[in-house]
Model the fold of this input.
Amino acid sequence: MKRTTPGETGLSRIVKVLEAFDKGKSTLTPAEIVRRTGLPAASTYRLVNELLEVGFLDKSDGGVQTGVRLWELASRESKTLSLRNTALPFMEDLQDAIRQHTQLSVMDGTDILYIERLSAPDAVVNITRVAGRLPAVVASPGLVMAAFGSSELQETILAAEVPQYTRFTPSTTADFRRIFAEIRRQGYARMDGWIDEGVSGIAMPVRDAEGEVIAALSVLLPNDGKTPRMALPAVQIAAAGISRALGWSPSHR
Done:
């Protein structure tokens, strides 16, 4: 018989249920939620029914999925939404120029959380999505935020496991310390073929009024050497524009 972890609250169990849904499985049966969460079956079924009643879950073919009510609450005014709304006009201009993938993300723990993405139908491979995550250590926005972040943030990220997507993905702490130093020197991060050998990622820091790096603007482009080099000035201009709109000035450095 499965038992609730000592000290586990009703809220923590609700969070576990909601976190069971992911990109690969957006519709789940209650039995699948039990398996994914490890929660007792009886309390899981009860939680699912309660979440259906308040609209945090909706019924779907063969199971349940996250509900419109949950989306509504999450979309109300917040720092993340305000950041996204400020950045979107600059992202649209950048996307018109590159016609690939333009993304805005923030750091959450040791992950990058993507809060907006603009894409073209024939763009390069992109494994991310809005509200999706990637380990910061292998994502260009994660690298740029870590490089301009605190030493504690860098050490936390370097302590995490590094997924080896391709033969070009760095693997050692020494590699990443060198990369952080290079990013601070040049002002941006560039990853060629780290997650997909045909894709390059470029990321620039986004700063608030105090000059703190609070987000990253990134693009995914063909890894052909020429395209990333030609796109870099446009990414720099867009990131600087977002930062200025947030109150930043180069004199604040």
